[in-house]
Specification:
Two copies of one chain form a homodimer. The first copy, chain A, is of the alpha/beta class. Chain A has twelve helices and twelve strands. Chain A binds a DNA duplex (16 and 16 nucleotides) through helix 2 and helix 4.
DNA sequence: CTGTTAGCGCTTTCAA
DNA sequence: TTGAAAGCGCTAACAG
């Protein structure tokens, strides 16, 4: 018995127009104090609660953002969503969630569904929509912010970590520890990030006098199973492998398992470095050396960008969050 | 350039009434095929997309559920939410998410915000709202399903795991392995679940000829830090402790750390058992023996219950999911 | 099968 | 400072 009470009910009982009640509800100062008091009293008596659906229809704003992630069960995205929801809540927005299991069609469906729901903006995380289809997808009147990748034509903006530098941090760390046969369990191949990271590596190798071919990149699924496969294949191909850098911490955990299975000690025989520093990273054995991201911040910034955009406020087109090496036992 | 197009625009261009267009959009069969074709054609030309806000105002249904959890960053809740979202999506519903960090006021705020948004139902997970305030909170026209606790007056239903039995499974497992000084890192005290679990233990102890006082329950925060504290305190109080059952897997991970810090081997000196079997459980070292829950199923059933309720379909008032012991290295 | 008439509950003009 | 009228985009309930 709450939403049955409407503005009109309150207005009638208070002996004013609906407009006046609306003003009170919306903290419009143009209401005589006594009138306001009377209205507030009736609102209390009747237990009136505004119907935001009606309000949204009239104002064309829903105070809602949609966020689409591959899988909220992945601790990385859970953190990003948490950051987004925290920021959104603080600004009076709510968050609609959709998981896509990395299926582009489902991303598209989610975006459309969010649009029909008239969300004020969408945060599209680590999209798998092919690079070339992205501009078309983003060409819509709903502002979309990308996370986990670079800005692309049509997006309001993009927020991502400096993964190129992150990869280099990890590799340099291993090189400094005299590891020379390094493998990169690279996650999904073909993505835009992949090429850039390899390029970053080649540039660094050239300038630092390393042989670029020292780094073998092996594509893999971005989960423990993928890391396990990639690492065991790498060790099979080359028993000399003494360092593995992984696309993320989940992959790293799988890689550690594979090493142990292959009779290698971590880190003595093979050093393993993860990426993103999920909570899990410090809890496994050995604790993971990893390149940390500000995941919570990522979600937060995405929301901030959307809000700035909606307020026609200037904002960066691309925010790149710093990465930092967190040294733990898996690669001391 | 999508949501600017309305039903009326389509109707005009197609030379029919808005009602007819509405029928086509809603797959109402009472439309002549040719008319339908014509309308669909115009819809395509104009790129018409329905505005669900307007639809919701008219139908009084938003096809949205709100889910309130303590923290989506907790893998347990991430799984529950995933299950709920999967089920919801399959049924045409969307999910609004809110994190409360176990703060009752924020749960209340979330429920109200969801109601103002006219959600069709709410899933309230592991609420911290005091038992005695719950009926009042639930006395609202928005159907609310509880998870992680028993049904209470006012709720549409409740879905939870059989934790009483789960605790017994864990304890019995330890007793069978000749562990005699068992500690229960019990999570938050005072909750309704706590008393019930202790009662279950006492009943079992009586009937099985064990001394009920063999089980020391120590309240603790439901995270690794809490487990670490509880376990180190337990070991300080009684160095003979040879078994620790934990409120959840996060607590168990902390407990394992505390044991190692105290110079104990796990499981040789102290066996540790967790609860809920999050993905993490099998990845830590030693892998955790734990009492598994169907977390994904929990969210799924909560949604199913809500949907059944909305369809005035009969459904259980309380669904209790089975728990099962998953034996791994921490307590072989 | 199709159209007309009313709203859903709120906000937005524009007057008063 | 307040109110009346109109409408946001859609569907419900009748007619025809």
């Amino acid at each position: 018995m709450s939403s049955r009470v409407t503005l009109a009910d309150v207005a009638q009982r208070a002996g004013v127009s609906t407009q006046t009640v609306s003003r009170v509800v919306n903290h419009n100062p143009a209401v005589r104090p006594e009138t306001r008091a009377r209205v507030l009293e009736v609102i209390g008596e009747l237990g009136y609660r505004p119907n935001t659906v009606a309000r949204s229809l009239a104002t064309r704003r829903t105070m809602t953002f949609g966020i689409v992630v591959p899988d909220i069960g992945n601790p990385y995205f859970a953190d990003v969503v948490r950051g987004a929801e925290d920021a959104a809540r603080g600004l009076g927005y709510q968050i609609l969630l959709c998981n896509t299991d990395q299926m582009p069609e489902r991303e598209l469906t989610a975006i459309e569904a969010f649009q029909e729901k008239q969300v004020d903006g969408i945060i599209l995380c680590s999209t798998r929509i092919p690079e070339e289809d992205l501009p078309d997808t983003l060409r819509t009147h709903t502002p979309i912010v990308l996370t986990g990748r670079e800005w692309v034509e049509g997006a309001v903006g993009a927020v991502h970590a400096d993964d190129d530098r992150g990869l280099l941090l990890a590799i340099k760390h291993l090189l400094q520890r005299e590891r020379r046969n390094i493998v990169f369990a690279a996650g999904r191949p073909g993505g835009p990030g992949h090429a850039r990271r390899m390029r970053a590596w080649h540039e660094f190798a050239d300038s630092a006098g390393y042989c670029a071919e020292q780094l073998v990149a092996i594509p893999c699924a971005t989960n423990p199973a993928g890391g396990q496969e990639a690492a065991s294949q790498a060790l099979r191909d080359n028993p000399e492998v003494d360092g593995i850098v992984c696309f993320n911490d989940l992959v790293a955990i799988g890689a550690v398992h594979a090493c142990i299975e292959a009779g290698k000690r971590v880190p003595e025989d093979v050093a393993v470095v993860g990426m993103t520093d999920i909570a899990l990273a410090s809890l496994v054995e050995p604790p993971l050396t990893t390149v940390g991201h500000a995941k919570h911040e990522l979600g937060k910034q995405a929301v901030a960008m959307l809000v700035d955009h909606l307020a026609s406020r200037a904002h960066e087109r691309e925010i790149v969050l710093k990465t930092e090496l967190v040294v733990r036992a898996s690669a001391p």
